[in-house]
Amino acid sequence: MPRILLIIAAICASQLTAAEPPSVTFNKDVLPILQKHCQTCHRPGEAAPMSFVTYKEARPWAKAMKVAVASRKMPPWFADPQFGHFLNDHSLKQDEIATIAKWADNGALEGIPADAPAPARWPEGWQIQPDIIVQGPSYDVPAHPRNNVIEWVSITVPTGFKEDTWITSVQIRPEHREVTHHMCLGFNPHAPDVEYFKPYWDDKPRDEDGSAIPGRGPTFGPGTPNHRFRSMAEDCYLPGNPVADYRDFHAAKLVRAGSDITINLHYTPNGTAVTDHVLIGFTVAKEPPERRYVSLSTSASTDPKLFAIPPNDPNWKSPPAEVTFNQDVELVYMMPHMHVRGKDMTYSLIYPDGRKEVVLSVPHYDFNWQLGYNTIVKVPKGTKLHVDAHYDNSANNKWNPNPNKTVYYGEMTWEEMMFPFFGVVVDQGVNPSKILAPGGGLVPPGA
Fold first, then answer.
1. What is the pLDDT of residues 5-56, one digit of tens each?
2. CA-to-CA dists, residue 445 to 79, 187, 238, 429, angstroms
3. Which domain holds residue 66?
4. With 0-12 CB in 10 A as exposed, 13-18 as middle and 19+ as buried, what is 163?
5. Is the domain of 425 the same as that of 339?
6. Co-location of 354 and 378 in the same domain
7. What is the CATH number of the domain that holds 426?
8. In 218-354, which ranges are continuous DSSP H helix?
9. What's the CA gap between 240 and 207, in Å, rounded?
């Protein structure tokens, strides 16, 4: 080859080499994504089974990470992007997915330490950094109770608050998440005859599969008319949703001095007996806020004549849940709640002029990840919140314990619920008990 051609070839090769982008590395490219989207769960002591804090921890999972993010299985996020706008959307952008995939495909290189961002600082053992920690109850969870059923248990503990306190976030922290279905709390004025740390529950008549029997008492809720512990479930721990945080909305929730906490515990035994101890952490506002956060919820009818999912029905439509707002509010939070047959849920606002707006659509509900969705929607007085849901009671539902059975509204995982949670922000002086029209939902007591 003539010398001039060799020179030209060398120049072209050098130009191509210079144009090639540098290799994707863990320290420079992948770690920032993991810190932002994944380490909340993927760190020691948290819910995920593996940690992604360091290269050594993440490297063995490189190919699995690529598959999980490419399929959008991880991080979990189920809101249909066609509807609503969400402040806490932690789904990955397409370029972030491409970065992780390229890293996995090109040898999952570590890169140089100087390229790594500073380690994310996480509160040890907490998702929040609590200002106050309240000692919750301890409860003995048996390995093999009858029909594998532990009825919902209500236990009251003191807050210890000596003065009115504006709380800005709440985390309920069970010691044994592996047997915890949910934990919800409500705040109550102290009653002189209350017995702290004493568990109360209602034994429901149940069949051999552990399902409550319609016609033999309620399948959901307390069975005794004078049941003391009917307090509003204001904040909950649920799989995938461990913290209630109002700070994004510049709001707080008022807890009166001397209040008690009633916490509702629901355990699902797994064959190993444990004693679970519960801690409740709060962050608090130094000054009273301008706006007040109020936790609300509603439900479809629990009447077994109306809520009865037929056997082998792949797309049963529930009776709707609906409430009417008596005040101007900002809708800031929505969390669908169903059990293992839950298929989809849609929240819609029907405005006073008749206009309808879908504000959240979850087309593929996943009981294992009961996510909350933060938004800001101004809702005028007279607006209705209308919620629809469907259920898959067929054999095609891999989580379905028995497709050949009619399923009623109930408290156990193998029964069903249609229970939409939502939260609003209002002016500080608004009475929480006046936000919804009477009979339209579950509201905390006025304060």
1. 444 444 444 444 444 456 999 999 999 999 999 998 899 888 788 999 999 9
2. 31, 9, 23, 14
3. 20-115
4. exposed
5. yes
6. yes
7. 2.60.120.230
8. none
9. 31
Q: What is the pLDDT of residues 327-380, one digit of tens each?
A: 999 999 999 999 999 999 999 999 999 999 999 999 999 999 999 999 999 999
Q: How far apart are CA 428 and CA 289, in angstroms?
A: 7
> Which of 96, 115, 134 is the C-terminal boundary of a domain?
115
Residue 63 backbone phi and psi in degrees, to 5: -65, -40
Q: What are phi and psi of 98, to 5 degrees?
A: -65, -35
Residue 5 belongs to some domain of the structure: no
The DSSP code for 353 is T
Tokens encoding 374: 């933060």
Buried (b) or exposed (e) across 141-161, using 16+ Cβ within 10 A?
beeeeeebbbbbbbbbbebeb
| CA–CA dist 357, 18 (Å, integer) | 52
Assigned token pair, 320: 């709707």
> Within a domain: residue 11?
no
SS3 call for 376: strand
Q: Is 362 domain-assigned?
A: yes
Residue 182 resides in a domain: yes
